[in-house]
Design brief:
The protein is an alpha/beta fold. It contains 8 helices and 5 strands. It binds adenosine-5'-diphosphate. Adenosine-5'-diphosphate binds next to helix 2 and helix 3.
Length: 184
Amino acid sequence: MNIILFGPPGAGKGTQAELLIKEYSIPHLSTGNIFRAAIKNETPLGVKVKAILDAGELVSDQTVVDLVAEELEDEKYANGAVFDGFPRTVVQAEAFDALLVKKGSQVDAFISLEVPEEELIKRILSRGQGRTDDTEEGIKNRLEVYHNETAPVLAYYKTKGQVKEIDGIGTIDEIFSRIKEALS
Ligand code: ADP
């Protein structure tokens, strides 16, 4: 099963992804986590993307699509994955569709976590993970990039009728129950 977890920065994608991978026994594919690990390990990819992440800008579509295509070669993804942070642009969504078609697979569900903007800023500022992009400036930029580049991805999947809109306000368990219900 391929599940896309979608939503603005701070919507709780990472948290819900962790619960979903346990529930459905499929791996988590977070492009943000892959980039942060690459930066920490100072790999060539990490060196290339560090300044981009710090500024809250998007890594180029080509880099992201190549990365996901390569990652999906791993047989641990044979039964699908929970995609978190990808696709983040319409170009990525189109490339992802083509990639899945080539594998004889498809997106099974698109979960959109809906959280109002004031709440997002509050959450990111209070999560205190020490992420170098969690500055006020970084957050503002990520939200702007989200509106301009990423929100159209929602419209793209809506035309395909795959979108499940989930109220992202509540306790972690409440939100997870809503997701499970939407998937059942
Ligand atoms: P959040 O959505 O909470 O800000 P993520 O962990 O999903 O955090 O992403 C962090 C950063 O990694 C983004 O701001 C961006 O720079 C980069 N990134 C992650 N996924 C993508 C993607 N699919 N396309 C382009 N850049 C990405």
